[in-house]
């Protein structure tokens, strides 16, 4: 590795220690070195456009995304860099740098040796250890607790609101493109299909339909891309987090499915709010879908109810202690079968 690559390694090391350091260009020789020349044992993911490798440096681990068929996807490479250079947010995977390398190489063509340009296009990101949300999707009977799922939903919505405020349409939101860190904080990733809109631009037309089946909005078949396209995909994801399925049967009772795992009446209300948001986001008419800020406001309001309930319980416990009542007296008791149809909407009562 030459001196220039060694210097860039130092910059990359610093990036993992200091989040204020801006993304930079990175030499191919450095990325080859930290991935053991893109060896199979370093591979951590593979998709239609790229292979992702784990890169090891002294201060930690990074993710190195190597694009496939670079001649076909040069525009996607430029779009992803353009969008990622604009963003820095806890719910967006952190962009560290890029490599655009082109070298002449003698290749055989029609029985003759010709000099061909061999392109290498790579992107580097923070390594998010917990994998993708896709691996955590289950129905209500198992898997992540409600509080974790709610925080994931809220984090995705906050991240998407940040993107939309910065005039970025992601265009490929799905659980596989949402990464989770050790604290289950969601981070939106994979901006290969994203669009950066001008200040006054609110829509675009495309003749190429890219994305993932099940998450594409109906209007995409007319070639229309708007911020509400992302909202539709978000709605599908929210429903999937709640039910384990992209599309649930019409008679599916989400409240009933969660009745044995919710702890407070405020969590029941949060569940209702999330399901309502998911339903509104997947409305066929984009004009009837809420925008990202409206969604975040509703989630924050629902969350504040949960905090109020917890504070209320603590106050009650303190009052009980000062009154000489047994500290172990239960504060919140189930009335009937929580969430069942004979339990008056599964409400919880507080008893002193």
From TrEMBL:
<dbReference type="InterPro" id="IPR000719">
    <property type="entry name" value="Prot_kinase_dom"/>
</dbReference>
<protein>
    <recommendedName>
        <fullName>non-specific serine/threonine protein kinase</fullName>
        <ecNumber>2.7.11.1</ecNumber>
    </recommendedName>
</protein>
<feature type="region of interest" description="Disordered">
    <location>
        <begin position="320"/>
        <end position="352"/>
    </location>
</feature>
<keyword id="KW-0808">Transferase</keyword>
<feature type="compositionally biased region" description="Polar residues">
    <location>
        <begin position="320"/>
        <end position="329"/>
    </location>
</feature>
<feature type="domain" description="Protein kinase">
    <location>
        <begin position="38"/>
        <end position="309"/>
    </location>
</feature>
<dbReference type="Pfam" id="PF00069">
    <property type="entry name" value="Pkinase"/>
</dbReference>
<dbReference type="InterPro" id="IPR017441">
    <property type="entry name" value="Protein_kinase_ATP_BS"/>
</dbReference>
<feature type="binding site">
    <location>
        <position position="66"/>
    </location>
    <ligand>
        <name>ATP</name>
    </ligand>
</feature>
<dbReference type="GO" id="GO:0004674">
    <property type="term" value="F:protein serine/threonine kinase activity"/>
</dbReference>
<keyword id="KW-0067">ATP-binding</keyword>
<dbReference type="GO" id="GO:0005524">
    <property type="term" value="F:ATP binding"/>
</dbReference>
<feature type="compositionally biased region" description="Basic and acidic residues">
    <location>
        <begin position="341"/>
        <end position="352"/>
    </location>
</feature>
<keyword id="KW-0723">Serine/threonine-protein kinase</keyword>
<dbReference type="InterPro" id="IPR011009">
    <property type="entry name" value="Kinase-like_dom_sf"/>
</dbReference>
<keyword id="KW-0547">Nucleotide-binding</keyword>
<dbReference type="InterPro" id="IPR008271">
    <property type="entry name" value="Ser/Thr_kinase_AS"/>
</dbReference>
<comment type="similarity">
    <text>Belongs to the protein kinase superfamily.</text>
</comment>
<keyword id="KW-0418">Kinase</keyword>
């Amino acid at each position: 590795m030459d001196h220039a690559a060694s210097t860039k390694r130092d910059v990359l090391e610093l990036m993992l220690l200091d989040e204020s350091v801006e993304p930079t260009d990175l030499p191919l020789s450095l990325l080859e070195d930290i991935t053991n020349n893109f060896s199979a044992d370093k591979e951590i993911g593979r998709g239609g456009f790229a292979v992702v490798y784990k890169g090891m440096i002294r201060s930690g681990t990074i993710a190195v995304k190597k694009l496939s068929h670079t001649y076909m996807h040069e525009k996607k490479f430029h779009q992803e860099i353009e969008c990622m250079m604009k963003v820095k947010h806890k719910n967006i995977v952190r962009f560290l740098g890029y490599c655009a390398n082109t070298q002449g190489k003698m290749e055989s063509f029609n029985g003759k040796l010709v000099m061909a340009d061999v392109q290498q296009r790579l992107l580097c990101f923070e390594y998010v250890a917990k994998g993708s949300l896709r691996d955590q999707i289950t129905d209500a009977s198992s898997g992540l607790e409600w509080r974790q799922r709610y925080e994931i939903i809220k984090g995705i919505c906050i991240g998407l609101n940040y993107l939309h405020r910065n005039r970025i349409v992601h265009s490929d939101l799905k659980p596989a493109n949402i990464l989770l860190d050790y604290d289950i904080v969601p981070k939106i990733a994979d901006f290969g299909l994203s669009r950066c809109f001008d200040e006054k631009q609110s829509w675009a037309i495309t003749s190429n339909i890219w994305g993932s089946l099940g998450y594409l909005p109906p209007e995409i078949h007319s070639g229309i891309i708007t911020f509400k396209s992302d909202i539709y995909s978000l709605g599908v994801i929210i429903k999937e987090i709640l039910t384990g399925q992209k599309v649930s049967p019409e008679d599916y009772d989400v409240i009933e499915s969660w009745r044995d795992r919710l702890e407070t009446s405020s969590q029941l209300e949060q569940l209702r709010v999330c399901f309502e948001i998911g339903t509104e986001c997947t409305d066929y008419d984009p004009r009837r879908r809420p925008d990202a800020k409206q969604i975040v406001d509703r989630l924050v309001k629902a969350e504040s109810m949960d905090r109020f309930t917890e504070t209320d319980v603590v106050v009650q416990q303190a009052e009980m202690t000062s009154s000489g009542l047994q500290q172990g007296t239960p504060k919140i008791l189930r009335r009937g079968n929580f969430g069942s149809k004979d339990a008056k909407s599964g409400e919880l009562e507080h008893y002193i």
